[in-house]
Automatic annotation (TrEMBL):
Keyword Cell membrane: yes
Family per similarity comment: Belongs to the 4-toluene sulfonate uptake permease (TSUP) (TC 2.A.102) family.
Protein name in UniProt: Probable membrane transporter protein
InterPro entries tied to this protein: TM_pro_TauE-like (IPR002781), TSUP (IPR052017)
A Pfam family recorded for this sequence: TauE
Keywords, alphabetical: Cell membrane, Membrane, Transmembrane, Transmembrane helix, Transport
């Protein structure tokens, strides 16, 4: 039966790889739901975690000269706190609530960007902490931490390469922190790891393809693609959350 649904798993990993490269930011939110077409949602999340770690490593290496240390200094500690918060509240916070919350915030951000002068100053440090905590929290619950972090980085008008490089380091650390917590929850079984290994070449190919495309995309088009990805991701998260409310 899984062979019939393998295209969904391959598409999910390729899409996540493209998103991890900085190209098609926001589209990664579709990866876990797509993977869930081929397996239970908890297994899909478990299979995605080692893939995310390796794809993050490839992204970090490919974009190692384009990392904004100041943004990481503000965002990374808060993101790791968000992961711990997700672990602590996993039994009382539903996937539906997190999906709707992240989706609604994403759409509000896009609306805010249509206002004159961008609708406010997104460099305010408490806002960086808030977005980073939410990113780590949503990442632990359902691998949907991309939109909050992308909102903050896009609003700062970072260069595409610096946005991608900084996000790569941020999510590598976030996903590395999730590893022992997933292990404690007995999600990292041998079968899931073997499946992740089989899908790994597709993920790496997606990252490398995305790095190539992002490096050749004009800044304005990079942002347009990123905003389009966030729009689709926001709608998708709200629809998925409402369906399971």
């Amino acid at each position: 039966m899984f062979a019939d649904l393998l295209p969904a798993a391959l598409a999910a990993v390729l899409l996540m790889g493209l998103s991890k490269s900085g190209f098609a930011n926001g589209f990664g939110a579709f990866a876990t739901p797509l993977m869930a077409l081929a397996m239970p949602i908890t297994q899909a999340a478990a299979v995605m975690l080692p893939l995310l770690l390796v794809m993050d490593l490839v992204s970090v290496y490919s974009l190692r000269k384009s990392v904004d240390g100041a943004v990481l200094k503000h965002c990374l500690p808060a993101g790791l706190c968000g992961v711990l918060l997700g672990w602590l509240l996993l039994s009382v916070v539903s996937l539906a609530v997190v999906s709707v919350l992240v989706g609604a915030m994403t759409l509000c951000f896009l609306l805010q960007r249509l206002l004159p002068a961008g609708g406010g100053d997104w460099r305010w440090r408490p806002l960086a902490w808030l977005m980073s905590v939410l990113s780590g929290f949503a990442s632990f619950i359902c691998h949907a931490g991309g939109p909050p972090m992308m909102m903050y980085c896009l609003a700062r008008n970072m260069a595409p390469s610096h946005l991608a490089g900084t996000s790569a380091v941020f999510f590598f650390m976030v996903n590395a922190m999730k590893w022992p917590l997933y292990y404690q929850m007995n999600l990292l079984s041998g079968g899931n790891m073997r499946l992740a290994l089989a899908l790994l070449p597709v993920g790496i190919a997606g990252v490398l393809l995305g790095v190539y495309l992002a490096g050749r995309l004009q800044r304005q088009w990079f942002y347009r693609v990123s905003y389009a990805g966030l729009l689709l991701a926001g709608v998708k998260l709200i629809v998925d959350g409402a369906r399971h409310w």
